[in-house]
Target: U-box domain-containing protein
Amino acid sequence: MSSRDIPLTIEMVISWAKSGHESDKVYRFIFLHPEDLFTIPQRRSWTIGHQVVYNGDVNLLKRILALFSDEQINIRTLSRDQKTLLDVAKERHKIYPSMYTYVEHLFLQDDLIQAAKQSNWDLVHNILNKHPKLSNEKPPYSTYFLLHYVVQNGDRRILENLLRRHEFQMNVLSAHNETLIDMAKRLGKIDMYSILEPTKQEELHSKSIKHSLPLSLFSSKSKSNKNPPSSTFSLLPHPVLHPTSDLPYPTIDPFPSAPLSNVTLNLSSTGNFTFTKDNKSITIQNEVSPSKEQQQLINTKNEHIHSMETMSSQYSDANIEQPVISPTSKEQLTKNLTCFLTQEIFIDPVIASDGQTYEREAITEWVNLYHCSPMTGASMDAEFNDNTELKQIIQSMKK
Model:
C-alpha cells in the first residue's frame, strides 16, 4: 500500500506537526478541520497547537489562528500534561525567542479581551496601564476590539473613563465590519453614540489627511455609496456589503453556479487537498518553492513518509485511530475563502505578516496608508507571500 492510499488520521497530523517541517500539511488540515487544533489523540500528550509552538513556527501559528473566531478557540487549552501554549513557549524561549514573544503577547491580548467580555473594567485598566499598546490590538480570532466590548457591555461612564485615561483609535472594525458608532446605533446606546461621533470627528480632523481615498478597494456596490461608513484607523471607508442591514449581514453564496453543498474539499494522507465535484476528483498540490531549510530536510521528510507507510500495515489494529472523514462546514469554508477587507471571494490572495490572507490590492493599499493589520491592529509592512493553494482551490470551485 502506498502512502497515498493510507486513511488520514489525527495521529498522522500530530506526526506532521511534531516533525517541525510539515507546516503546509498541518495548515491544510486545520484549514479543513479547525475543531481538531486542540484534539489530543489517545496515545499522545500534546495537541497540534502545542507541537506548532514547540517547533517555533510563528508564521504557521499566525496563519492557523487567522482561521478561527471567538467561539471556536480557547488558546488556554491544556495538554495532557497540563501545559498551555505559553508554557511550551516559555520552555523553548532560548531556542525560539520570537515564538515566546508572540505567544506571550497573544496571551496578553487575550487577557484584555476576556476581561472586557466579562465586564471586568478594573482588570482592563490594570492591563492597559502595564501594556498601553494593547488598547488598539486584539487577537486575530477575536470578533471585537476592546472598545467594541465597552460599547456592548459597558456604559457611558466606563467609556468616558477609558477614553480619558488611555489612547484609542476610534474607527476600529469588528470582524463583521462594524464600527463603534455602528454598534452603538444597533444597540440603541445613544449616550455612547453622542461621545463617539464627536470624538471620531476630532480624530479625523487632527490627522489632516490630504491624499484621496483609493476606490479600488471596494466592490461595485461599495463604490456607489456616496457616504461610505467610517473605518479602521482613519478615513478609509470599509466595504460593508449590506450597510443598512442589521448584523449578522446576509451571507451570499460565493459559488451560485456550483454550490459548496455539491463540492467536497478534503485532505489526503500525503498532505494534498483533494477536490471532488460532480464525480470528478482533482488533487491540489503545493506549488510554492520550498525554502532552504525545507530543502535541507528532504531526507527527513522521505523518512516520515516511510513511517506513514509502516503505520498503514498496523491499521487493522483496533486501537488505531479512525480516519478523519468530515471536512469543514460550508460556512467555515466560505469564511476562509473570503477577504476581510473586500468581503468578496479572493481573486489574488496573499498572506500578510499577521498570518491572515487578504486580496493583494486591498491589503497593499491598506498597509501603505495605515501600516497596521486590519485584523489585529499590530504594525505591518507591505511584504506579502502569494497564497497559491487558495487561489487554485477557488479557481477549481468556480469551474
User: Anything to note?
Assistant: Confidence is low (pLDDT under 50) at residues 204-259, 293-298, 304-319. The chain has 17 helices and six strands. The radius of gyration is 22 Å.
